[in-house]
Amino acid sequence: MGATAVDAGRLTAPAYALHLLDDLGAAPLRAPACGDEHPALGWARSGLMVLTGTADGAPQHCPAPLTTCADGALAALASLAPPGAFDDLRGSQLLAERAAIAGYSRRGTISPGGACHLLDTIDGAIALNLARDDDWSLLPAWLETDVAAEWASVSAAVRGRTMHDCVERGRVLGLAVAPVAPPLSKQLPWPWLQNSLYPPAERGEREFNAKPRVLDLSSLWAGPLCSHLLQRCGADVVKLESTQRPDGARHGPPAFFDLLNTGKRSVALDFATAEGRARLRALIDRADIVIEASRPRALRQLGIDAEQVLREQPQLTWISLTGYGRAEPQAQWIAYGDDAGVAAGLSYLMRVTTGSTVFVGDAIADPLAGLHAALAGWASWQAGGGALISIALVDVVRHCLGFEAPTHLDGWRQRAADWRAVAAEEPVRAPVARTPSGSAPALGADTAAVFADWGIAC
Prior knowledge:
Order of helices and strands: HHHHHEEHHHEEEHEHEHEHHEHHHEHHH
Structural class: alpha/beta
Number of helices: 19
Largest sheet: 7 strands, mixed
Helix content: 25-40%
Strand order of the largest sheet: 4-10-9-8-5-6-7
Shape: globular
């Protein structure tokens, strides 16, 4: 049980919070306040254990300290935020909220949400996420054969191909596909962000609780969670959507959309028009923090280049959420929360420690990335801005996996056994979600008001 004692002493949320603040060079206003719950207990209590394992088997432990890292990230943010901003919330609570609202359960090789499957290949396995309806139309080109629009046919076709071929061809075509790969070695800590600094402008003296303007161009989970947390810090958050392609989460469980977006103001623009693109740039010009989750080329096609914007607005904090980062060729790769967790090594780790290759939680990379992004964005704004913060979903999960990690697979197996022993008598709790405080605004409901408030001529 020696490893358990080490885990209990070092794998704590306060230690992770201080680790993140040190990475950011941020001086907290107060010491990070959070418990030192053992990761195994946090896993059983968070609802994630219920979501992990085969449908007809027992809930499974994951020996990665994901709940500890979530609690630590939120505690680090709370240490920089106005007092009381997060007294009623824990980071680990955020990881299973969508599943609680949607009624998801564990499904083994199928993600709780159903869009991502683990598929065997000739020499390994992959995660394929068909989150968009038009993804199915790409399958014949990907597999170089006609394939029925059903998972059984896709699985049969993939079994005749190599893992490398499936991943490489899928990424070129714009599919969210990832190998079931082992966690990276802990010889070097894996960075959870890439922070490109620009000379900050003089902002003068400023009251701590001044409200930064946050322009959120993101959708689904990670970005909206980031802006939701910034809103709780006191930010004025404007949710900007395309009239042609609104946030897809609007078509999901209403309670989940309300949970993340109540209290934000909604602006809708037609990016296909010159007027819409000009208004987009005008909003960016007046923002303190921009959050976006697009591949860099998508915004450049709208005339928005993040690096150039920061040269012109060096007081701005720009948060770029991607699957694999902004460097080429990874900038072109698509990822969502479930397949990003697989790419980071979670499903491989489950195979090593339980014998079953299964998904871990529900789109786990999304809430983890959203938590880390909110911390980095708020710290940057407090420091005066001037930063392009690139946060990749895969990188955040890899970083959490690497926090005080074993250095070899036998170490992971030993940790898994120790953690199961620690939590042997702990009741396994179902996912629980907060109740939304109200309803999110209708698409574009606040467009005119925001433009008037931000001093932009309509």
